[in-house]
Predict the structure.
Amino acid sequence: MTRSHRARPYLEDMADSIRRIRRYTEGLDLDGFLRNDVLQDAVIRRIEVLGEAVGRLPESRKARYPEIP
């Protein structure tokens, strides 16, 4: 498997998490978000998935994009 193919599943997970967070919070103000524990938990989980995916990206990919933590 090429290096770019190894990164693809993680990049797809990241994009999916971002789409879900946007969908979950669309049209919602901060107050509404803070009053909804279930929504907060869902968003937090998607942020965790993002962090896990970033951590699993190949070092070569991270080196090409130093802004990736």
